[in-house]
Input
Amino acid sequence: MDPAMQRSPAPARRAPGALRVGAKALPGDARRHNRTLVLQTVYRSGPASRADIARATQLTKVTVSDLVAELTAEGLMLELGTREVTGPGKPAMLVDLARDTHAIVSLDLSDHRRFRGAVLDLDGRILHRADAPLDGAVGDAAVERTVALAEELVSRTGLSLLGLGVGTPGVVDDGGTVRTAPNLGWADVPLQRILQERTGLPTVVANDGNAGVLAEHNFGGAGDDLMLIAIGHGLGSGLIVGGVPVVGSCFAGGEIGQVMVGSDLPLDAPYSREQVLEHWLSVPGLTAALAEAGDDGRERVLREAGQRLGTALAPVVGALNLSEIVLAGPQELVGDVLAEATLEILQRRTLPESHRGLVIRTSSQGSDLILRGATALVLQAQLGIT
Output
């Protein structure tokens, strides 16, 4: 047997829990789980009474009252006043998250021209914006621009900040270290630690595709089996299967942008970045190809890009039976022609049962996709809300 086939398996890594918490926990970690359950229930439902929360979560009224008191003391929840009633009985006191007093700072490092940032409320609405032109900065210079943008946004709000979320290109480990981001000249950059030390905020750093797919799941009404394809400076992607984010054993889950594609390649062709999917589907690559092709060749360029994307996605759809693929990027690039060509190839190259009901659509989050995804990262890390 080839020695490469005899290597010891990598240590098992625990997959993160399902994004939607839907039932009370067993003894052991019950309090933390039930606290998350209360927060998520109120986050999704809006103002509710303690009795409403108890019914929705199947927790006892005593447990709910205790948790609401704890969260109120921490400033995360507040009492709004009593509900108007017409019948007999004591009116119920309504509680909600302290949505107007808390905010999150989010950064989007995926654009090839500038870094973008914003202060968002807990519902993903933009309160303040700022950006920093990239001007070709890489390495330490790009890190400093990231820090400066975060510090500027922190200084622009007087609200209580839950934390800082960042969506960045590249492979990012679970400690927030960017293992590699070639377009930014980063290798083993401890971005999460740097930002946390410089801003004083709890910080979460993740791959931009993984952040983007959370935005679609949290704020875009997406289902529990989807893949996001983010076309920007490079080609990012994020994957959720059965309500669980797929990160992968080396934190590179969903990295189809670096897969060599196309039936024009011989089987013995070595890996080449000039032949990977990102070469055809990044914004700079598509823009250059369209400029060279002119108006007469526009449809051909976009159709070829969509066909190559469909070729790369076919094994993924076949293996995972996804229900939804979301395309994010400039509408003029990812719209009708590219999306239709992608779906056409998927239908040709997968079993009918694999693609039955499959939806390919453009993102509902527009240019704020990664910013909202970074917000979702902080909500999940700090409050357990997804």
In short: Confidence is low (pLDDT under 50) at residues 1-16. The longest strand covers residues 160-168. The chain is about 40% helix and 20% strand. The longest helix spans residues 298-320.
